[in-house]
Amino acid sequence: MIANAQTVITDSIVVDDNVTIFKDPRLDILDKRPALMVKIEATEKAELKAKTIPLYKPIVSADGKKQITGSIYTVKGYRIVIYNGADKNAALAAKNNFSRAFPGTRSYLSYNVPSYKIKIGDFDDKNDANKFMRRLIAAFPAAFIVPDLVTIKNINVIQ
């Protein structure tokens, strides 16, 4: 009397008179796995290449003398927190003081109960954030760097 747990047995090897090895057909999939992994990696690379920032045609001014090229995109980067506290007036004062001292750098006010945060800058590299923070540390000694989504503007005007 022979009892089988599988309903379909395709491969069997007789090793000895008393020993028979039955192979599960799903094991054949494992033989094909390296080829499947190469195909998946190629697909992922193609998708990553498709997500790269496209190059746009330049915008030309009405008189034809100026060309504007570049792009604006969002990436994972860094910002510097110069104020973190519950006092809204102190947050606005810190934002105004920063804007007067560094007029070309953007600052952002956010409120997450119960604290206000003033974040400044759009740095795609932590070293750039560190360099800028060294300039800030005298005026804002409690400043620190945090990871954030930042907007990078790469705009060029050619005359």
Structural write-up:
This protein is α+β, with helices and mostly antiparallel strands. The chain has two domains: 11-50, no CATH class; 59-158, Alpha-Beta Plaits. The protein is 31% helix and 37% strand. It has helices spanning 27-50, 88-101, 126-136, and strands at residues 11-14, 20-23, 59-60, 67-85, 107-112, 115-123, 144-158. The strands form two sheets. Strands 3, 4, 5, 6 and 7 form a five-stranded antiparallel β-sheet that branches. A hairpin with a 2-residue loop joins strand 5 (107-112) and strand 6 (115-123). The longest helix is centred in the first third of the chain and has 24 residues, at 27-50. The protein is elongated and about 90 Å long.
Short structural description:
This protein is an alpha+beta fold and 159 residues long.
Look at the structure and name the CATH superfamily of the largest domain: Sporulation related repeat
Largest sheet: 5 strands, antiparallel
Count of β-strands: 7
Looking at how many chains there are and whether they match, the oligomeric state comes to single chain
What is the mean predicted local confidence, pLDDT? 80
Looking at CATH, which topology of the largest domain would you report?
Alpha-Beta Plaits
Strand content: 35-45%
Radius of gyration: 31 Å
What would the principal axes of the Cα set say about the shape? elongated
Could you name the ranges where pLDDT drops below 50 across 5 or more consecutive residues?
none
The secondary-structure element order is: EEHEEHEEHE
State the CATH architecture of the largest domain: 2-Layer Sandwich
What is the domain tally?
Answer: 2
Q: What percent of the residues sit in helical stretches (DSSP H or I)?
A: 25-40%
Structural class, from helix and strand content? alpha+beta
The helix tally amounts to: 3
- N-end to C-end Cα span: 92 Å
Task: Return the CATH class of the largest domain.
Answer: Alpha Beta
